[in-house]
């Protein structure tokens, strides 16, 4: 009796949950479906599922606007800024977690506070400095800005991971006669790698989707996908299918990364306040 | 435990990060402050000079500024209301036993990973377009006249798009918090005969309080800076109907070339964000002690 009631309840909850989830997911689903239509069929919603499917839009996006250049810009900028950020943050987070001083806490809070600064507050000087240095529309310039923007998050995330590595195990290794090099390679690195990997993933996602600096500091040359897609905001003629194809290609890789790293996302974006 | 040697090493390892962050924060901020007291227009470089608070005066008395502040607040509060209430409801729903829970979860959090320019353009064209959009199609299906959403309700439309992007974030964090709720406590209250409403008010909501606070503060930080969504949909229009503070500063700086005025706007944005930041820092700081 109780079992039947709970099964019935599960059926109801399942249906409601799936309907809600599909409504939320709908814009993405529709974009993917539209990308496989011709321009004429894309706006014919009433007969959407009767018209033929094709992958022509994908070729057209590439041939008309050199899509892959922007794709590679996105890859270079997001991966580059992430690796740069790790280069700076691994030693910093490491020393904060394993050799904290009385000021460590203040330094960490101060780093977090730099993240609170609205980008628009420094847009003017950054723009002028970049203009003077010839860094406008330059992938390196953008890489540096995004690295600095995400550095506090990266340090915080790494810190919360490093903090969980038990110090005792290092002492145990030392007692067993491990040298510093062996300690590093066989004990510390294996324990630190998962944390570093998830920090890497989250930061690539953030950098890939960043849409303030990428829009304001790039033009045609170094524009990553965020800026490239924005150029579709003033189009001519029918472009639904092409917009969809470009969008699908732009979000697919990051959607996969995001789905893989959803747990770490919570931790990273709340600075460890929610785990 | 730490010897003097390791402390020196620690300082040495921390220094690069601290230095570049310090430079990144201080140099532009000081420059913004400096420009904000200058008459400085890129189109008229000859007419320059120190003008005290005149840029602030012009910026603050500009009707566009008042509207932009209002729009910024409506946008932030609107998105917060939708995402927090919706997030709590969704988290409660997804915490139940359902078939295909993993997939449902993936579908719900997906919008968060879509880059802002893509989500804004997809909504603008494929959903809200008054001729070819899905909403127009649905309206016609029910014999209604399609609504030109971005024309007639620009701020509401931008709010809706932004809420769609941030609902997954709120849901994901609240769901994570919900799942850490002690099962025994839930069961005990159920056995004591507490109904759902009572359980929600006395057990679930207090447990979620901290996560909700964190969601509100972090979203506020990001929402105060909403830019791309406006940039690709309405360009702040019609008129200033959907212009928020960041967009107004952008217009002033990169379209009107008024460096002084834009900087004054930037300083005001910094002050506003700091008010929120103080609260967030306190909460995260408390967590650090625990």
Structure in words:
The complex is a heterodimer of chains A (275) and B (290). With 275 residues, chain A is mostly helical. Chain A folds into two domains: 33 residues; 202 residues, Orthogonal Bundle (MetI-like fold). Chain A is globular. The two termini of chain A are 38 Å apart. The longest helix of chain B has 33 residues. Chain B is flat. In chain B, a hairpin with a 2-residue loop joins strand 1 and strand 2. Chain B has a two-stranded antiparallel sheet. Helix content of chain B is 75%, strand content 4%. Chains A and B meet through helix 1, helix 4, helix 5, helix 6 and helix 7 of A and helix 1, helix 3, helix 4, helix 5 and helix 8 of B.
Name the biggest interface. A-B, 93 and 105 residues
**Arrangement of strands in the largest sheet of chain B:** 1-2
DSSP strand tally of chain B: 2
CATH superfamily of chain B: MetI-like
Q: What value does the average pLDDT of chain A take?
A: 82
Work out the strand percent of chain B: under 5%
- The number of distinct structural domains of chain B comes to 1
Order of helices and strands of chain A: HHHHHHHHHHHHH
Query: How much is the radius of gyration of chain A in Å?
Result: 24 Å
Tell me, what is the CATH class of chain B? Mainly Alpha
CATH architecture of the largest domain in chain A: Orthogonal Bundle
Task: Please write the CATH class name of the largest domain in chain A.
Answer: Mainly Alpha
Number of helices of chain A: 13
CATH names the topology of the largest domain in chain A as MetI-like fold
Largest sheet properties of chain A: none
Which word captures the global form of chain B? Answer: flat
